[in-house]
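Protein in question passed on here:
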Amino acid sequence: MLAPQIPFDPQESPLSYAARLAGVHTGGRLVQFLKDFGIEPQDMAANKDEALSLLADLSGVALGDLRANAAVPVGKRTYDLRGELVAAEFLANPHTVFCPACLAEDDRSGWRRGHWEWSLSVVRTCSRHGIPLVRQAKGPWDDVFHELEYIVPERGEDLQALIKKAKPRSVSPHQEYVIRRLNGKAGPEWLDAQTLEQAVRATELLGVLVAYGPTQKLPELEADDWDHAGSIGFEFTSRGEEGIREALEAQFRKFDDASGTPGARKIFGCFYNALAHSKSLKEPGDIARILRDIVIENIAMPAGTKVLGVTLPERCLHTVASLAKDENLDSRTLRDVLVAASLIPEKAPAHYPIPLQKGRDVASRVKRIVNVSSLPDVLACARPLVDQLFADRMLTPIYYGRPGTKGRTQKAVDRDEIAMLVGKLHAKAVELDSENDGLVPVSKAAEKAKVPAVTVVHMILGGFLERVFRLAGQDGIAAVRVDPAEVKRHRATCSKGLSAMEAFAALKISRNILWRLVDRCPEEVSLAVNWIVGPDDEHRILWFDPAVVEDFKDRFIHPARLAELHGLQLWEVASRLKRRGVQPALLGEEVGENFYRTRDLKTDLFT
């Protein structure tokens, strides 16, 4: 063992310590010193176990202390660093890395020391002085020994110039995490569940995507760029999957309005490619699974598509084009119905994703579409009854046809919904072989009782009528026969207040707006609906209290009614409201029309 014994600095690398021993005991360079004591120089440069053991015996320093500050090779381009397996790319080699301020302090007190932290590529800022570390490219062959006394010629004023040139900055939280982890301290749960290299790689690559965008070429990034990327990425990876998803989904949203059908490589660019083709990291870790999930959840891809090495077993999403092709439908009609079903926005781009089953359900509806113009024939009833069935929500309209084009937006109904309505009516009826003098069709009974035809339909479905028959050989509502006298007896019970048609007519709004107001109940701007329940409580008859409707009409008003009341054009009403700064109590985006409180309208506003 050498004497005198030179203390080992806990922050020093074994290679630096060996160089100090050489300087103190021989006054010469490291290579000759190692040869003199039977230590293979290249083994020492590589921190091989045999070289470290010989150095421990020579210096009297515990082998564990030396090994803790070295990346010890355990396989081809694989190293053990304090129990963490890392690849060669994780290390700063072949660069010599140093802090000029640390070297200046060493110059004042003795021999220069190389810190073990500086050997890590992720360590780019001096934790003591808060300045960027200097990365010196490989020069002569003996640079592999990183002898700071010789390969960093700057001293005195020249070294001070390097210090002044450095821009102060705080240590990246990403760098701090790595050092804490190597010191045995726990960190964020998700990061700690990855290997150290996976955690570092995921953080930096995500930071590159967020900070520099998907088109950034990774080889063009400098050390300071990677340091910045690490800081940005750590904001997300430190919060685990939730944070990572937040960053990736935000990146995805940037392509919401992109033309064409951008894929994962277009959207995530360098981030996706690095995870798909990493040379330094065969298994990228959980970050790949998270990105794969994001891709599968947002991009329509056919079965068999490979996403980061995993084959998609079945399609999860459709676009309008792919759904139309699979279902053999006209894409324009399908798109319009998808908009009406709120599965896609009105101006959705071509790549907008549609959930597989929901898309198929809508496609099935399109195949079952019956145009409103055909409903009187299909239902076998008069057109006024069709309108009443829509008004009372006994039929649900399917809208299609592009808004803004010439002509009205078309409406249709699902054939299955029609069949269900007619089926329920027929189920209430007893089959009749021939006409009976005491029985009449629904329309005739309504005429005799002086009620809308839909009221008779309600009476049948609600179980109010006992004498309901279905004429054999006829279809639809026209086949139903009822006793007009029985209809008259239940007229008062089943015709309370205002019907839906009477309510929206009184308020001068469409039936769609009326029902949206009903759906908002009991919000301030809403309408309450009442129900009549008969013997069959599965069916209810709606009615509106005239006092409630009148009260709503007194308290709230919409621009079309204001224009009618004051003999103005609609645009002029809107302009005056805007100039006075009158805010609506309910926005049109919610119910289809702006509603204003009448108390907010000054008397001189429209005079």
The longest strand covers residues 410-414.
